[in-house]
Amino acid sequence: MIVRTTHTTQYKYSKEVFIEPHTVRLFPKSNNSQRLIDFDLTVSPEPEGKANIVDLSGNDAVCIWYSGLHDHMTIRAESVVETLRNNPFSYIITDESVATLPAEYLNYHSASLLHYRTRNSEPGGEVDDFVDSIKDEADGDTQSFLSVLNSRIYSDFEQTVRHDGAPYPPEVTLLTGTATCRDFAVLFIEACRTVGLAARFVSGYRVVEEADSERQLHAWAEVYLPGGGWRGYDPSEGLAVADGHIALASGIIPADAAPVSGSFRRTGATVEMEFEIDISIQ
């Protein structure tokens, strides 16, 4: 399907500030799961300069910088994307050592995927207890594990909205039982890394939202499966990712996929952020 998005983010500073260089990752990816047809990015005030870049994680981005002092910054991204993946399971795992758990990638893959497999939780803790029951239910099969993990997070936890702040560590999500989409994604990723699977964080848009719900930036996880490549799982929906999502950026940690990253300087200054996301199917 063809999807048109408009994403406006406005930063209002309590006094004029010096805006440090910002990296903007609002370019929809263009690959075998989605095709970028049109894109336009406008920034106000007009930056002193900007550079189109590919960041460390391979995301298309733009770096903008300013001179002088400003009391606001508005970033507006408009895009038209064709989503292409109708069947998220149209692949086979070509490496038997990854088809069962714990996963072991080929040597040359293992080196490239090292950081995507490095866990952030302590072995033997709450995450391992959570993963062990899922691994048992999946009987050691990788694809079954991913499906059960996705469904378990969706059914066993309560979803909430938290506009600001980094994702919670997986231990916090397990303790509270309440989390946002980005918290669920982090928990899913950590569970995958616990059994040796390479996983990464993805930010983007969910095309179809519940009726009357406010549009939010969305987050999910991707797992690297030989023969399938990076495959998306959205524990907020309990589903594998197909043509109902538009990916903007991905990374080893959530900060690598932040839609906008940067800072400002001025003693005593504060900032308020407002955003509006509009999505329509053509």
Mean pLDDT: 95
- The CATH class name of the largest domain reads Alpha Beta
DSSP summary: helix tally: 7
Low-confidence spans? none
Strand-helix topology:
Blueprint: E1 2-19, E2 22-24, E3 34-44, E4 49-54, E5 60-65, E6 70-83, H1 96-99, H2 107-112, H3 114-117, H4 126-138, H5 142-156, E7 158-159, H6 170-176, E8 178-179, H7 181-194, E9 199-206, E10 218-225, E11 229-234, E12 239-240, E13 245-251, E14 260-261, E15 264-265, E16 271-281
Parallel strand pairs: 7-8
Antiparallel strand pairs: 1-6, 1-15, 1-16, 2-5, 2-14, 3-6, 4-5, 9-10, 9-13, 10-11, 11-12
Defining key terms:
282 residues, Immunoglobulin-like, C8orf32 fold, 2 domains, five-stranded antiparallel β-sheet, 7 helices, globular
Account of the protein in words:
- The protein is of the alpha+beta class and 282 residues long.
- The chain has 2 domains: 2-84 and 258-281, Immunoglobulin-like (Sandwich); 96-242, C8orf32 fold (Roll).
- The protein has 7 helices and 16 strands.
- It has helices spanning 96-99, 107-112, 114-117, 126-138, 142-156, 170-176, 181-194, and strands at 2-19, 22-24, 34-44, 49-54, 60-65, 70-83, 158-159, 178-179, 199-206, 218-225, 229-234, 239-240, 245-251, 260-261, 264-265, 271-281.
- Strands 1, 3, 6, 15 and 16 form a 5-stranded antiparallel beta sheet that branches. It has a 5-stranded antiparallel beta sheet with strand order 12-11-10-9-13, covered by helices on one side. The chain has a 4-stranded antiparallel beta sheet with strand order 4-5-2-14, with no helix packed on it.
- α6 (170-176) links the parallel β7 (158-159) and β8 (178-179).
- α4 (126-138) packs across α5 (142-156), α4 crosses α7 and α5 packs antiparallel against α7.
- The longest helix has 15 residues, at 142-156.
- The termini are close together.
